[in-house]
Amino acid sequence: MNKSKKIKNRKTPISNNAKKSQSDTDTDTATKPGTTAFKMFKSQTSIYSIGFLLLCLFFFINSGSSIKFTKPLKTKLDYNYPPENMTNGSSKNLSALFFENGTQVPKVMYVPQVSQADKLDYQAINIITGRDIKDVDIKSGSLLSPLLVARPVGSEAHSKVNSFLSSKLKEYGMEVTYDNFTESTVVGKKEFSNIIATSKNLGSAGIGKRLVLCAHYDSKILKTGDFVGATDSSVPVAIILSAVQMLSEIGVDLSPNSVQVLFFDGEEAFKDWTSKDSLYGSRHLASKMDSLKDPSLSSLGYNITQLEMIDLFLLLDLIGASNPSFYNINPASSNPTTSSIQDNSYSLLAKIEADLYDLGFLKKKFLNPFNSFSPFGKIDDDHRPFAERNVPILHIISTPFPKVWHTLDDNAENLDQYTVNHFTLLIRAFVLAFLDIHI
Ligand SMILES: *[C@@H]1O[C@H](CO)[C@@H](O)[C@H](O)[C@H]1NC(C)=O
Ligand SMILES: *[C@@H]1O[C@H](CO)[C@@H](O)[C@H](O)[C@H]1NC(C)=O
Ligand SMILES: *[C@@H]1O[C@H](CO)[C@@H](O)[C@H](O)[C@H]1NC(C)=O
Ligand SMILES: *[C@@H]1O[C@H](CO)[C@@H](O)[C@H](O)[C@H]1NC(C)=O
Ligand SMILES: *[C@@H]1O[C@H](CO)[C@@H](O)[C@H](O)[C@H]1NC(C)=O
Ligand SMILES: *[C@@H]1O[C@H](CO)[C@@H](O)[C@H](O)[C@H]1NC(C)=O
């Protein structure tokens, strides 16, 4: 039950004081558009200001309904396709995916650009998310409530959550498969089930960019009682479901790009965190994906592993407590392309957060915008088995960890609705930016 088991090589100890002063300085900043209106409402209760607000509300609702999200758009996206028109800035270079004369030509990875954020229609994103925010309500959200239960490996609740996640992903049009396996652990043999969901594409499946959204769905066993792990990782899982829900609602054809969801099992240690007692699911799946050819591509004659398909592995963890802070803690890579993908992805996420804040859609900024500064050293998590195989990582985990981390208080009562909404909006916008989807 010591924090050091999850944080390796931490340079600075995290004290409660450090946590407190950090969140105090990070969050209370200047006036935002949203709060100005609220203050005006509080101080001048004249009939005029109420009338004005109602008028604004009317226009806001009206502008929303004119975007007709209730009907799927079914847009065929305008990609640089067919492949001969692809450039390294837009997608993988197809000719680089072939095995020629028994030698693999290195593929060209997609390096996201921070300027992609400038093309997003934040107004539209905010309206979509605003409409669906009830799904991540901490008391009754249809995507979150079913996850706010103790669900240790092997329990009935764990199996119910597994079915819930699978059925939601299928409902959103994803192809769902499992990586089920039995492994000896420090407490005997256990059965695990990773969930893998991939967007369905026809023909050109996966030839373009592949964004992989990841979180773990098991919860830790605590001797003291039923540990829910609301931030660890019910909320991250719900945020990912919500992003996939958005893609299904806007009804966009992603091909030749694709989205994959990996919900890992057995992230938590059964006893104390060690390299063997932890990350059961991600270690198993990374090793498997490293040798499995991607089925959608092998039928087209491309010899490429499922791991090589991944342009970005976005891992969410420990999200949902109030006033968190985030740094670019992505693992260093000796491969310069991997490093730029990681750094650019972090910068893109921070830019989107800053833009949403400047436009008044977000009230706070939680991401430290600088790329090169992290006082918290390395954090061991489900990304490690993938990072070790040179998969580009974007690891979004609050540092310092939430105060409730690995205590019975990490439950629904201690979630912060604002923070949950904040990340739901932010991750939805990031998915759109990364895949160049314009609504
Ligand atoms: C691809 O390039 C060719 C020739 O350069 C051009 O005629 C064609 O319109 C391009 N296709 C797309 C989809 O951009
Ligand atoms: C694609 O890759 C091949 C071989 O790596 C290269 O010769 C070609 O110029 C590339 N095409 C584009 C559009 O980048
Ligand atoms: C990709 O494009 C950039 C400029 O847009 C260039 O500097 C870089 O060398 C290109 N990389 C490859 C692998 O072609
Ligand atoms: C194999 O190598 C030869 C000679 O370098 C080259 O001409 C050819 O295009 C390569 N590819 C295949 C599929 O044979
Ligand atoms: C894998 O395990 C899950 C959860 O127990 C189960 O629902 C699913 O049917 C299993 N799939 C396979 C292919 O065994
Ligand atoms: C595909 O790649 C593997 C190495 O990853 C190689 O052993 C195998 O021969 C290749 N298959 C074909 C058909 O090129």
UniProtKB/TrEMBL annotation:
One of its GO terms (biological process) is proteolysis. Keywords: Acyltransferase, Hydrolase, Membrane, Metal-binding, Protease, Transferase, Transmembrane, Transmembrane helix, Zinc. It is an enzyme of class 3 (hydrolase). It comes from the Eukaryota. Its EC number is 3.4.-.-. The chain crosses the membrane at residues 47-67. Residues 1-29 are annotated as: Disordered. Residues 194-431 form the Peptidase M28 domain. Residues 1-11 have a biased composition (Basic residues). The keyword Iron-sulfur does not apply. PANTHER family: GLUTAMINYL-PEPTIDE CYCLOTRANSFERASE (PTHR12283), GLUTAMINYL-PEPTIDE CYCLOTRANSFERASE-RELATED (PTHR12283:SF6). Belongs to the peptidase M28 family. This is Peptide hydrolase. It comes from Smittium mucronatum.
